[in-house]
Specification:
The complex is a heterodimer.
Chain A (H helix, E strand, L loop, with lengths): L1 E6 L6 H11 L3 E6 L10 E4 L19 H11 L3 E5 L1 H9 L5 E3 L7 E9 L15 E8 L3 E3 L2 H9 L3 E6 L18 E5 L5 E4 L17 H11 L4
Parallel strand pairs in A: 1-2, 1-3, 3-4, 4-11
Antiparallel strand pairs in A: 5-8, 6-7, 6-9, 9-10, 10-11
Chain B lengths: L1 E8 L6 H12 L11 E7 L6 H13 L5 E7 L2
Classes of the chains: A alpha/beta, B alpha+beta.
Chain lengths: ~230, ~80
């Protein structure tokens, strides 16, 4: 298998994702430049965190109109696996590959800390290595992570089991106190209906190695690797 | 000529920035202000073209506004 990490001007978690894929999981990995249209035959695409195009206009809005995105949309529509992390999640909502939008955090502060997430859907290519209802710890670092969707949209997400991660407390309860940014229904990550495009605000690439003291994030990349190799 | 585009969050979407400004205004004694909503203005310098308003609308839907959370209005010409 081959993974591709898209680099936009302003991406700053691209090398972290590349490192985890290439050196921790030993997957053939390449960078994809935002002006390219060619996806270099990758099987898995990561839209990394950062501040694409300086987040001018709205987070992810300008990236959603970039040259490579048409190819990414085409890849996703054909069933290719796409993971958007933080700014990558914002880009996925701006392109329409995922429903809803990310608003400014409820308290208008940039938040950088570890948060608890409960895994609510393990039947995806990204989460097979977790168990249902498992509580994991993954860091967030964002200003615009307040997930919003209208009521019919939320009902749709719930009905189709598209909510993959929710902010929770130590024991897995999705209380208001455990919601760092005001996201509706404590949503931290969602998947599309087809199940091949995942967007999440927390950064799994920042907790994917023993040396970092936390490996809760590695299972997402591991799940993808096993899925693409037909292991699971 | 100039075209102005005003974009703001829909009234149904919480605007924490507006909320913070409202609180500050009230703390400063401006009690008559009941609500604040924050938006953006885009000033476009354009050349005359066929169906200009339609094209600007298209630009708004595609790029300048996110129809899921925002609404916009357009003021043509000067």
């Amino acid at each position: 298998m081959k993974a591709g990490v898209v680099v936009f001007p302003g991406s700053n978690c691209d090398h972290d994702c590349y490192h985890v894929l290439k050196h921790v999981l030993e997957i053939d990995t390449v960078f994809l430049w935002h002006k390219d249209k060619e996806l270099k035959d990758v099987d898995f695409i990561v839209l990394p965190g950062g501040f694409s195009y300086g987040d001018y206009l709205r987070c992810g809005a300008i990236a959603s109109q970039s040259e490579i995105i048409e190819s990414v949309i085409d890849f996703a529509e054909k069933g290719g696996l796409v993971l958007g992390i933080c700014n990558g999640f914002q880009i996925l909502t701006e392109t329409g590959l995922l429903p809803g939008a990310l608003l400014r955090n409820r308290d208008l502060k940039f938040i950088c800390k570890d948060v608890n997430l409960v895994v609510s859907n393990v039947n995806t290519p990204f989460t097979k290595f977790y168990s249902s209802g498992e509580v994991i710890k993954i860091p967030i670092a964002h200003m615009d992570g307040n997930y919003f969707i209208d009521e019919p949209g939320l009902a749709d997400l719930i009905e189709n089991e598209q909510i993959v991660f929710r902010y929770c407390n130590d024991t897995g309860e999705t209380l208001d106190d455990a919601n760092p940014n005001g996201s509706i229904d404590n949503i931290a990550g969602i998947i599309n209906k087809k199940g091949n495009v995942l967007g999440m605000m927390p950064h799994p690439e920042r907790c994917a190695e023993e040396i970092l003291g936390n490996t809760d994030g590695i299972h997402i990349f591991n799940s993808v690797k096993k899925f693409l190799k037909g292991g699971i | 000529m100039k075209v102005k585009v005003y974009v703001k969050l829909k009234d149904t979407v919480l605007d924490p920035q507006g909320e913070a400004i409202l609180q500050s205004a009230k703390r400063n004694g401006y009690d008559f202000i009941e609500d604040v909503r924050v938006g953006k203005v885009f000033e476009l310098e354009v050349s005359d073209t066929d169906n200009l308003e339609g094209k600007v609308k298209q630009l708004c839907d595609k790029l300048l506004a996110n129809p899921i959370i925002e609404e916009y209005s357009i003021k043509m010409g000067e």
